[in-house]
Design a protein that fits this description.
The protein has a single domain, classed as Glycoside hydrolase/deacetylase (TIM Barrel, Alpha-Beta Barrel). The chain is globular, with a radius of gyration of 17 Å. By secondary structure, the chain is of the alpha/beta class. The model has no long low-confidence stretch (mean pLDDT 94). The chain is built from nine helices and nine strands. The chain starts with a strand and ends in a 7-residue tail after the last helix.
Length: 268
Amino acid sequence: MKATWLTVDFDDERHVPRFSGHPTRSKHVQSHIEEAELNKQLSEPFKAGMMGFEEWLGTNSHPVTLFVIADLFMSEEFNQWFSHLLEAYPERLTVGCHGLNHRSWSAWPEDKSGFSQALQQATQILRKMAGDAYRPWFRAPGGYMAPWMAPVLAEHGYTVDSSINPSWLVKRKAGKGNSWADVNQSLQDSNLVSRPWKTSLSLPMNGPALSLFPLSILARWSWRKAPPSIEAKDIDRAITDSKTKVTTLYWHLLDHARKKATWEPPFQ
């Protein structure tokens, strides 16, 4: 079976590496009090993206996996909307973990203990808030995935990782001295199924590439040629079976705020 796995990363503006979570790229550092208050708020673009995403869901029948950052649930507005979304599309939506707070783990020194604690908290929150839609599937915040993270994921019961963007342009995200092959081998050794993101000509074609010229031209062309989406009834088997060929595509919820909240992924 050849099919496409559609996935969406739920990052607000406060989560992106240029704002927080990265040792060199982040420009904003808050006190714990300021951070706690900030976490209760949603940006206007994120709220527009929420509405745009929900409208897009109503135009098709594609199953979609949502990779959610657990600290979003500190916002009551997000909490209520997310619950409504899962109730509206119970057969089509699955939920994976995108971290506790979008820390770019592989950009920092190895910290298995810190990663384990954050993963435990995120998993507990997502299990509670997503209910039957929750799956033990992980996507590293910002795609910052190092080999040392794989055994920790296995310890917490994760079975699938979708963090690898196998392009030379972002190989630094595998951590200093590592390659994507090293990450993949560690996942394999830890008995996790790896679902790397689709590339084209060894160039990124997901996430930011959808809007960054000239990568956006290649990305949109490649997306339109992707196989049909996985049927909802087959998604668990397809994603967890390493022998099944799956094209993994992803975009951000914030993308739906583009074009006055009328943006749609270029998938047929």
